[in-house]
Amino acid sequence: MLVDRFLEHLAYEKRSSALTVKAYGQDITQFRIFLKEAVGIDQPEQANDKAVRAWMMRLMESGTGPRSVNRKLSSLRAFFKFARTVGEMSADPTDLIEPPKTPKRLPEYVEVGRMENLLTTYEWPDDFDGRRDRLTIELLYGTGMRLAELLGLAPADIDLRRKTIRVLGKRNKERILPIADPLADLIQGYLKERNRLDPQVLSNTPLLVKNSGEPMPRRTVQRIVRHYLGAVSSQQKRSPHVLRHTFATHLLNNGADLNAVKELLGHASLAATQVYTHNTVEKLKKAHQQAHPRGGSKPTPTNNPGSEAGAKP
Hints:
The chain has helices at 2-13, 18-39, 49-61, 66-85, 112-121, 128-143, 147-151, 181-194, 199-202, 218-230, 240-253, 258-265, 270-274, 277-291; strands at 158-159, 164-168, 174-178. By secondary structure, the chain is mainly α.
């Protein structure tokens, strides 16, 4: 089946992550079900532009947001491109389809003061779980790595002498991230605690483990981040990716070079990194509005007699 060949192409040739392959597979399966029910055809490579538009309309009418529809449309585009490459289709039915417009959404981040409170004044539990949880937060905030990258870290990826971490990012692209002295000290202390666990259980396990020595599940890391950010922030979104946004925003707000931030984040293009500059620009706009005489804020009354209404120069 062409869909299976496409998913294998993603996994083994494009080296896409397992989550990406799963998402593409779910989107295309959803499209196939729609085609069978609404159009009466079995395979997505038999679809035309009308069928794709009808599916998009069905999604939006059922309450699917523009961003989700765009993601599903991207899955179809990738499939149709593959189908043309292997000679199963002569044209791409999505070529003339405009994606639905999505409102611009600035990345959410945690303010500097709140992160400082969490990392300097908050009383962390004084046990293995507490030290591991703190290291989890510090790694995400101190390096900007993705959750999948964090979960894939092994002790061998850390070079405490050079103070660097080797990260395997999207499409197996490797990058080296610097770590500050406090983070290096945390890692060193955690590794000492980790090495006291059962060596048989620890064999070939990632850096972050439970106190039983078993790997940390994805949901556990998400729960840890949500819990500790909740101690210093009331914002609704408190996820590992928010810490990635926080890392990038704090760097740019303090004058970091955009290209350097791009490399640290592992972005393929500068356009993906530029979204973080909007927070910086909005901050500058607010400062200008509040402080500049012509910035748009309400004028402050003055005691200068020459400025009063009717006063002669």
